[in-house]
Amino acid sequence: MDQFLTTLTSILNSAISPQTAALAIAAIGLNIHFGYTGLLNFGQAGFMLIGAYAFAISIIGGLPIVLAVLIALVAATIFALILGIPTLKLRGDYLAIVTLSAAEIVRMVGRSSLLTNVTGGSNGITGNEYRGPFTDLSFFGDGHIDFGPWSYDATGSNGWWFIATAWLVVALLCLFVWAIMRSPWGRVLRGIREDEDAVRALGKNVYSYKMQALILGGVIGAIAGIVYILPASLQADSMGRSMTYFIFTALLLGGAATVFGPVLGAIVFFAIRLFVQGVAGQFVPSNIMNGQQTEQFAWIVIGITLMLVVIFRPQGILGNKKELSFDVK
Amino acid sequence: MSSDVPTTTSTITAAGAAAKASVAGVSPTPGVAKPDPILTVDHVTRRFGGMTAVDVQHLEVQRGIITALIGPNGAGKTTFFNLITGFDKPSSAPKLIGGPKAGEAAKSSFNGNEVGNIGATKVAKKGMVRTFQLTKALSKLTVLENMRLGAKDQPGENLLVAIVKPLWAKREAEITAKAEELLARFKLLEKKDDMAGSLSGGQKKLLEMARALMSDPVMIMLDEPMAGVNPALTQSLLGHIQALRDDGMTVLFVEHDMHMVRHISDWVVVMAEGKVVAEGPSGTVMDDPAVIDAYLGAHHNTDLGDDSLLTDEVAEELAAEVTAEEGKA
Amino acid sequence: MRVWRLIATIMLILTGVILALSLGASPAQAATAPPLTAAPCATDDATGCLQGTIKLPNGDPAVGIELAITGADLDTVAVTGDDGKWSQAITVAGPYTIELDTSTIPDGAVLDSNAKNPATVTGALNKNTGYIFKIVGGTTADDGTTTQTPTAAAGTGITFDRFLQQLVSGIRLGLLLALAAVGLSLIFGTTGLSNFAHGEQVTLGGLLAYLFANVLGLNLILAAIISVVICAATGYFQDALIWKPLRRRGLGTTQLMIVTIGLSIALQYAFQYFLGASTVRIDQANPVTVALGPVTLSAQSLISMGIAVVIIALVGFVLVKTRIGRATRAVSDNPSLAAASGIDVDRIIRLVWTSAAALAGLSGVLLGLVLNGVNWQTGLQLLLLMFAAITLGGLGTAFGALAGAMIIGLVVELTNLVLPGDFKYATALVILILVLLVRPQGIFGRRERIG
Ligand SMILES: Nc1ncnc2c1ncn2[C@@H]1O[C@H](COP(=O)(O)OP(=O)(O)OP(=O)(O)O)[C@@H](O)[C@H]1O
Ligand SMILES: [Mg+2]
User: Fold this and answer.
1) What letter would DSSP give residue C421?
2) Which of B115, B122, B125, B140 would you mutate first to test chain A, the one with the most A CBs within 10 A?
3) What domain range includes position A302?
4) Residue B310: partners with Cβ closer than 8 Å, 6 or more residues away
5) What's the CATH class of domain C48-149?
């Protein structure tokens, strides 16, 4: 029973943690790419990393926090342009391969020993070096706040201040996505997802729309990167290819091309993982499966879940079968 | 000429007579100059590997009339459509280095604009809108959304405007009204909230044509518009196409149904093996022994009213579409 | 009901893979093969750490270097892990002697002649004490004398000899890459699927060879053959149990691609489940090197390259000269046309999956021998290069994949001449992006029909 309570608590904690919010934000961005426009961006983690580096390095360089965020967004925009210009006129597979590669390049360059002075190399940058200005903005005071099953410091890293801002960003972005996707602009994107030649024949500049979508989703990815590192530290390897895969898993779990799908998906993603880990830890004797292995077992289950979701419920939890974004014949 | 018009359909309008009259004096030879050409094409060739799919040295399309483009399967009609609407590039397009000689480079001008090298979007924006032989209905958009997507001048298609609904709501209401009117004419109004993917093959053709008309094109190019549409509806749509012509629109269409070609076209262009082999008023061309040999076959005149011809056509068409669909999977 | 059959089969496959691995992996702990990861060392009031990172001349971490550490109550051997790091916890402050076992340095490199070996350091509690051994390019003769490659700064200078060495390494990587990429390309060509789990097929080959050769103690060649056969079987059953039913269900290629991503995640963690993050060696013996003029290669590298050349030539021959090969190319070209002309498309696809998995497995075995180690992400790291290779060559064309693989292999290794090792993959990917700008359909690709 104790074990069960521990698992439940950790699921509840993960449900509201800034890390979950960050995954949700990244998935919201990817939803604009993949869910609404049909762009196969396999480098969303690269956008996160670009945003994270730009933000952290700007703060360490002494810039005010607003400017640092702005620089992160501009950096993501430039990254999107570099990726989009050569590929958005080509078939979708090429964007997939180029984004995958580019995200990997960002990670390799970021962790390169040549840049240790700037990016911290493979050790990365510790949170204390860039967290200060954000913590200073807090008006939550210094105490400790209990709220329902949750109990955190008001401001300290991983405290309520971080949680509240992260989820506020999530809420604002959901509102934004809802507003633009019901508009004619969103309609053009969905048209492109279905058949870009048809949309081109109607006189819409498909290339420009795809670029706008790539930039917008990428910029949201950069925001996710900032939210992700604020309560933690910045390490290039934590935003690698696996991260992109996890973002995809969360998006598809929740439901692509829906407003709340990415958010729900991110929460469910962590919940499944912790649940499996908890159950395996409790019921399987440790000589068969040790602590390390329960964690890996949970990831195996995540992988299989992704397969099963895509096969049997491609519209995810929230999606409508008729509107799902895949080409299902 | 009057013997060509079956008694079952609309009478000749004054505008219709005028359209026929405008090309009455033109000699029926391939590549002949027209009194008021809206589209002029020069030296357009397209090779796939060793095979020349299209080789049109000169062709003019008269403004304000209905021109039919006929020819055997594989004659290059669709490829020719792709080339003039900017979906494909002529092999003879001018290049920076090593292109064709100055006088022999591909050139096409539409309504006073050079459209040879500007891409599909811009061609459509100039008012030359096309449909596709293999329908491109946007399956996971509703029929009404498909229609709205076709409309021009939508402020809401700009991302910055899209966020604020009041800025585009008025135009949206206008185009919705127009869409419903067109849908009613194409007998699709009760389907307006269905997903386009759920329509039948013929309904998709109709939707695509209606969608193209949403942008008030100067010239509409239809690639086998009536393939798979039932005879009764074909009749009423033919009337509709003639009405468009009477309002001043130019129509260029590809069709294998000689009944229909004879019925509504003011001018016929015949392609075989990539070349324009004959053109002229429908009666003249269809009596041309070369055309009969190459394409129509000896009995074309006697069998026109026969339903079995139509059924074969439809069957073939469907077979082709099924193969294409399978190819995609 | 087919739904449940599918779930059941997927589960079954994974359980099978997991079981197969567990059979071999559990005794591994007891067997002689030491896991090559450095035990993490954390300092506290009673503990201090001796540690360091050893890098190869090209900047890559030097894996599996052994250091004998003696002093106070300690007499032990530390081994560098995947990241080239080694560490040793100490409980007594004082002087320690560290001696690097030069025979564990990979071929093509030697200890810098200025380096002290053994070296003496003074360890302290609650503190990390670092010591760095510098490895430079050079060769070791049979009698143990070393010749250091005369470069001012190893890793950056371009000499003709170094160029030749990297050129040969590039060809080696290109060949192994080609083996794996050809299958990926054929799968893409015949089914339209980008298989993101293809990297794991490579890893599987390497790990199976380790299992048979090392844990079960079979003869290396026999172990390699068994591994490849098992890999082929995984390809066959994958298509029979997963991909064919899914094609029947009418899943789109994007959907299928994401299914392969799920499979890739599951397999990666399944590998880790049994092996942890450690790197294992297929062949425990120290590599014998062969010098060909200025170029030094391990015997294993040479043999692997030979095998790769033969197999690639064989694949090319089959594709061009045999009926089955022509049928395969016809299916790649236009599946519905091929079906209409009487080719059994499903059978061809089954064959493609089987041989693609076998080739990937072989590539994994050879890679494990050449790099002198495999771990759970060996194939994962290769996947991007494979994608780059087949994109470069033109998606779906088998010969394009071969050419693309050679180009990528050469680019990756030659990059080392001018840039530190961190960048070698990056350059390959940059080149890919540049090529796409100029020739979007790849070197051998064709454009598609519209309308
Ligand atoms: N992308 C392509 N690659 C290779 N060949 C092509 C391509 N597109 C068209 N072709 C070839 O060009 C020729 C002309 O094709 P096209 O589709 O233009 O014929 P069509 O006149 O429209 O025929 P149909 O009446 O059957 O629609 C055909 O032989 C076709 O095989
Ligand atoms: Mg055609």
Assistant:
1) G
2) B140
3) 2-323
4) B231, B257, B259
5) mainly beta
State the CB neighbour count (10 A cutoff) for residue B233.
17
pTM: 0.81
One-letter amino acid identity for B63? R
Q: Give 10-residue mean pLDDT values along chain C (451 residues).
A: 45 44 36 37 73 78 82 78 80 80 77 76 76 74 51 55 88 94 91 92 95 89 94 96 91 88 94 87 79 83 92 92 90 83 90 96 94 88 88 78 91 84 79 77 59 47
Query: In total, how many domains does chain A have?
Result: 1
Q: What phi, psi does C121 have (nearest 5°)?
A: -130, 160
Residue whose CA is closest, atom 17 of ligand 1? B78
Ordered by start, the domain boundaries in chain C are 48-149, 160-438
Are B159 and A185 an interchain contact pair (Cβ–Cβ within 8 Å)?
yes
Written as six digits, the tokens of A275 are 């649940």
Which residues, at least 6 apart from A112, have a Cβ–Cβ distance to it below 8 Å? A119, A121, C420, C422, C423
Architecture field, domain C160-438: Orthogonal Bundle (1.10)
Distance from C-alpha of C373 to C-alpha of C80, rounded to nearest angstrom = 13
Look at residues A303, A313, A23 and name the one whose alpha carbon lies nearest to residue C197.
A303
Q: Is C103 exposed, middle or buried (0-12, 13-18, 19+ CB in 10 A)?
A: exposed
Please state, rounded to an integer, the average pLDDT across all residues of chain B: 82
Tokens of B165: 């609904």
pLDDT of residue C448: 57
| Cα–chain center distance at B58 | 19
| C429/A102 Cβ within 8 A | yes
In a domain, A76, yes or no: yes
Domains and CATH numbers, chain B: 14-137+200-298 (3.40.50.300), 140-198 (no CATH)
Helices A92-110 & C424-438 angle (0-180, nearest 10): 150
- Contact criterion met (CB below 8 Å) for C110 and C146: yes
Ligand 2: centre distance to CA B284 (Å): 24
Q: Label each residue of B212-272 as H, E or C.
A: HHCCCCCEEEEECCCCCCCHHHHHHHHHHHHHHHHCCCEEEEECCCHHHHHHHCCEEEEEE
Comparing CA positions, the residue from A243, A235, A257, A252 lying closest to residue A305 is A252
Contact A231, A99 (CB under 8 A): no
User: How far apart, in whole angstroms, are the C-alpha atoms of residue B129 and residue B219?
Assistant: 6
Give contacts of A182 with chain B, Cβ < 8 Å: 165
* Per-residue model confidence (pLDDT) at position C396: 66
3-class secondary structure per residue, B84-134: HCCCCCCCCCCCCCCCCCHHHCCEEEECCEECCCCCHHHHHHCCEEECCCC
Two tokens, residue B85: 């609407």
Report CA torsion sign: C316, C321, C324, C330.
Answer: positive
User: In this structure, what token pair is assigned to residue A192?
Assistant: 């492109």
- State the Cα torsion A224-A225-A230-A234 to the nearest 10°: 160
Q: Is the CB of B45 under 6 A from ligand 1?
A: no
The number of residues in chain B equals: 329
Other residues' Cβ atoms within 10 Å of the Cβ of residue B116: 24
B53: Cβ below 6 Å to ligand 1? yes
d(CA C44, CA B239): 91
B323 in reach of chain C (CB within 8 A):
yes
Please provide residue B10's backbone torsions phi and psi, each rounded to the nearest 5 degrees: -55, 150
Amino acid at B229: V
What secondary structure does DSSP assign to C32-68, as a single string? S----SPPP---BTTBEEEEEE-B-TTS-B-TT-EEE
What is the helix, strand, coil percentage profile of chain B, to 5? 45, 20, 40
Q: What are the start-end ranges of the E strands in C268-365?
A: 289-292, 295-298
DSSP state of A31: I
| A218 touches A77 (CB < 8 A) | yes
The first and second tokens of residue C45, run together, are 């009031």
- Tell me, yes or no, if the two domains C48-149 and C160-438 fold the same way: no
